[in-house]
Amino acid sequence: MLVDDGSRDPRIAPLLSAFAAEHPGVRVRTQANQGFVAAANAGASAAEPASDLAFLNSDTVVTRGWLAGLRTAMAAHAACRVCCPVTSNGHFLSVPRFAQPNTLPPGWDAERTAAAVRAAAAAMAPVELPSPVGFCMLVRRDAWQECGPFDPAFGVGYGEEFDFGQRVRARGGAIVCAPGVYVWHRGGASFAATPTTTEAQVANMRRLVARWPGYPAEAVAFTRLNPLRPLHERLWDVLLLEREVHVLHVLPRWELEGPLRARVLRLVAATGSLATHTLVVPVPTGPAGVWIDAIDHETGPGWRVAGVLDFERLRPLPGRVSRDARASPRHRRARAHGRRGGESGGSPDTRDRGGSRGHRAMRAHLSRLPARGEAGRAAPDIIASSVGA
After folding, report:
1. Adjacent-strand bridge partners of 30
2. CATH fold for domain 34-228
3. Domain limits, the chain
4. Position 332 confidence tier, pLDDT thresholds 50, 70, 90
């Protein structure tokens, strides 16, 4: 069921008609623009009465096997009534940058990203969520009959899927994510960014919290725990670990400009052909406190700056950092190099003191590492380096 809710783009109506003509099972419903909630409810009411419902925003790109993957995840969780995929832009379903909008990697399309997601999530079970995210969700028919439709009180939209999800959960149903299913989502295309829509979104969030006062705490608890973190890190493994050596830098802070940033990025550039770099810093604390397990501040070719919630636990011993902060199963052997030369096996001090000496020392040390698979030697996967902070 395709719902055209009064689009002003003259290309939309013939596009939908042509698509329906090529696919006999597809129908088009046209109505006046009453907002997302009304359009979604209208589509659901016109669908086959015995079928489950898959809600899909118009600014999405589906990938191979997306619907079958959602059905498989739903069947694997006995209490599941609503199932969502991971995406490029969907709050706590966003990958690889968690709770942030993502662009596709250079040279990648949605299908290639979906293949990487499937590989990274191969052994992951469905993950329970505090609420669905409305860009794409599969809803069991019995859940819709008991808990639907979306409440028209949410107007043109925003928050209606959260409200629906809480009704599902109140009746004992579960909302889950299928970690191996990826649907690209542009985000923000359903609502024009105007002061009026912003005010409506704020009002809807107040309405949501008034109805479900426990929801904000549950959402924060989920983002701080983030059960999808293994998926994020395996994707970063694919995106960033293109060199034989992965260097982990432990820093007390990050800055968008300044001497620390300049020193670190000079070091990254000087050794970029030999190693991939991950820079770990504390998660910044805002007015509401720490609400996320980790945040990716910046990424570039072969490097990533990640803030982590348990930074203080990782900080004391570089050797412990190597074990606790490894990003994927690939990092099974690690050697830590701390502030004192030879602290973990006699390696040279790799601090950058603001000049080229530190770059030369790091590059020389990396170039001496044995090649992966060399007979009788095992190259370290992570080097934890303290760079002149």
Report:
1. 4
2. Spore Coat Polysaccharide Biosynthesis Protein SpsA; Chain A (3.90.550)
3. 34-228, 241-385
4. very low
